[in-house]
Amino acid sequence: MKFSLNGLYIESYTKCANCGVLIYEASAEDSARKKVHDGSIYCSEECVDWKLARDARRAKAAV
Amino acid sequence: MDFVTMNILESSMVSLCKEMGIVLMKTSYSTIFNEALDFTCGLADMNGDMIAVADYCPAQIGGMPLLVKSCLKEIPIDEIEEGDVILHNDPYRGGLHTPEHTFFKPIFVDGEIMGFAVAIGHIAEVGGMAPGGFCGEATEIFQEGLRIPPVKIKKRGKDNIEVWKLLLANVRTPRVNYGDLRALIAAVDLGEKQMTQIYKKYGKEKIKETVNDLLLYSERRMRAELEAIPDGIYAFSDTIESDGIDAERTYTVAVEVHKRGGEIIVDYHGSSPQASGPINATLGVATSAAYNAVLHMTDPTIPRNSGCFRPIRVMAPPGTIVNVDFPAPEVGGNTETHPRIVGTILGAMAPAIPNRVMAAEGATHCNFVFGGVDADTGEYFACYDLEAVGWGGRAFADGNDGVDSINGNCRITPVEVYETRFPWRIESLAFNVDAGGAGEFRGGVGYTKQMLCLNDEIICSQMTDRHLLAPWGLNGGTEGGVGATLVMKNGREDWQTMREAYGKASTSRYSNVSIRRGDRVRLVTPGGGGYGEPAKRDPAAVAEDVREGYVSKAAAQKHYGYQEA
Fold it and tell me: What DSSP line would sit under B250-282, residue for residue?
């Protein structure tokens, strides 16, 4: 989530593509944990892994 | 762990939370607080983790940790001073829905912040396009009322007048809102005052240590409960019938519950993209609903705090019906989609723990909201009215009859109070016959409330569900009865749906219909699904249902082979 320079309003909401939590641009903790995968932002490596595992499981089930 | 001190402290804190709720109930102005009890009071540590809570509204209990933590991301702890009260209702940053206002006040001991007293309450009138805060036809958040980011409504013990003026300028009932907001502040004032005394009695370090132990104790007990459930991936889905904008379109709530050892992960991927209308849930709702479902299927004696929630993770994809993106509407997500999510999780877990789940409940709060100018007083009135439903049958008992949906734990407003406060006459209020799904344990029944309008005009809106798609039965039980909203205009003799009478897209979600003096409105609430094969139902229970009027003789014969003695 990105605030305007004056801090008075939100310019954009950034959510983890997997779990949906807000990722705060100003948070050092959030910045350290976040990952980019296939053009999407994730809050952590764990969420990328979860997404890949789910995709694999569903692809297997579809066969 | 010092179990004796932990037990005493936990009981003291829970009692304090209950007392905060009683203050709120007794000092508030609106029926939603002093009759329906649509609020929750709790205590949090300085990280925003909930350390104690009273048994008020489950939707708010599960939502509390994210709400407080979200605020603390924006107002750093070192900017919070003694006597401050922080207010917040923003659905896109931890909130549940626009009417849900969260207040929290820091607890300082010897100049050090130790935690927070928290009160969350559903304010009945929040501005926006419809009186009563539920505009069933909203297509963006700005139509749903005033959105409040985390702000200090009190600074160092003094009212922040500018914030008060902004709040009260944007609602239809400023006098009543002022009273309700004051009641919420009174609740956190009491929590802060009493908790400070508890800190002084036991000492800061002892309480910190004991609270850590308490959260760990709840976590361990929750993990032990989860470990007893067979591991696996359990999937289920349910369908919401419309969003109030496109009446023909349905929306899927899909869950995969991953149960692994002592943890549970609820993955909502596969749920529908967010709707144009206000049925979308926020992340706070999706999280709270997962907690709520897990609490319903585990030991109710585990102390309720953030420790219970540590073994539960939620995956709520953004831009979907379970995690709405700005600026889509969301007010119905907390009342309608929340119980639907809980039911979907319980449905998923049915094969693993059939004795701890139930068939579908009515899963709506009916949310009949209205407002107008009182012909006698000239004052604007507004009301958020919730109604109760039938719950699903269980493996050991029938469903509850006429009880608020699973995330509310609220009471319905008594007829006498309703008629005193608002210009309606309640002509009848009676359980619906044959509205509980048949089963070894039948579903609970909903009821019908018929009202006569006594004002020149009342502007009515509604956000409800289950008019078309009935609550499902489980393990051979049949569906429960559907709900309805009907109007008989003055001078007519037939009942019409809101679609027929006012040209609305949906019968269950609509905004701003003008009900006139002499018009009648009939609210029919849905029943719950049945559990188990009807043929297995105890014949004595069938006979009792017929005798008491829950089931007609014809239905008893059809479902249970009933023969009159």
Answer: -EEEEEEEEEETTEEEEE-TTPPBPPSSTTPPP
Where on the phi/psi map is residue B228: left (φ > 0), alpha (ψ -120 to 50), or beta? alpha
Element containing residue B101 per DSSP (H, E)? strand B100-109
Q: How far is Cα B512 from Cα B172, in angstroms, rounded to an integer? A: 14
Characterise B415 by phi-psi region: left (phi > 0), alpha (psi -120 to 50), beta (else): alpha
Q: Which residue has the tokens 């006098």?
A: B175
- CB of B354 within 8 Å of any CB in chain A? no
Contact A15 B325 (CB under 8 A): yes
Residue B245 and residue B279: Cα distance in Å, rounded? Answer: 10
The alpha-carbon radius of gyration of chain A (Å, integer) is: 14
How many Å lie between the alpha carbon of A19 and the closest alpha carbon of chain B? 4
State pLDDT tens for residues B32-85. Answer: 999 999 999 999 999 999 999 999 999 999 999 999 999 999 999 999 999 999
Yes or no, beta carbons of B317 and A54 under 8 Å apart: no
How many cross-chain Cβ pairs, A to B, lie less than 8 Å apart? 41
How far is Cα B196 from Cα B281, in angstroms, rounded to an integer? 36
Could you tell me the CA-to-CA distances from B90 to B130, B230, B291 in Å, in that order?
A: 19, 38, 21
B43's enclosing H/E stretch is: strand B39-45
Return the SS3 of B449. strand
Contact call for A18 and B93, based on CB within 8 A: no
Before B327, cis peptide (omega within 30)? yes
From residue B378, alpha-carbon distances to B175, B513, B516 in Å are: 13, 21, 17
Could you read off the pLDDT of B257-316 as tens digits, one per residue? 999 999 999 999 999 999 999 999 999 999 999 999 999 999 999 999 999 999 999 999
Q: For an interface test with B, which of A12, A22, A58 has the most B Cβ atoms less than 10 Å from its Cβ?
A: A22
DSSP state of B141: G
d(CA B439, CA B559): 8
CA proximity to B267, closest of B317, B324, B340: B317
Residue B346 DSSP code: H
Q: Which of residues 304-323 of B touch A (CB under 8 A)?
A: 313-318, 323
Chain A residue closest in CA terms to B282: A20
Confidence (pLDDT) at B268:
98
Is pTM beyond 0.95? Reply is yes
Pairing mode, if any, of strands B312-315 and B263-267?
Answer: parallel
Asked if pLDDT for residue B376 goes beyond 90, the answer is no
> CB of B145 within 8 A of CB of B240?
no
Q: Where is B347: in which H helix or E strand?
A: helix B338-349
CB atoms B317 and A18 under 8 Å: yes
At A53, the amino acid letter reads A
Residue B1 has pLDDT above 80, yes or no: no
Residue B392: C-alpha distances to residues B387, B542, B547, B560 (Å)? 16, 17, 21, 18
Interface contact flag, A19 B314, Cβ < 8 Å: yes
Tell me how close the Cα of A16 comes to any Cα of chain B, in angstroms: 8
Of A10, A17, A24, the CB nearest to B318: A17
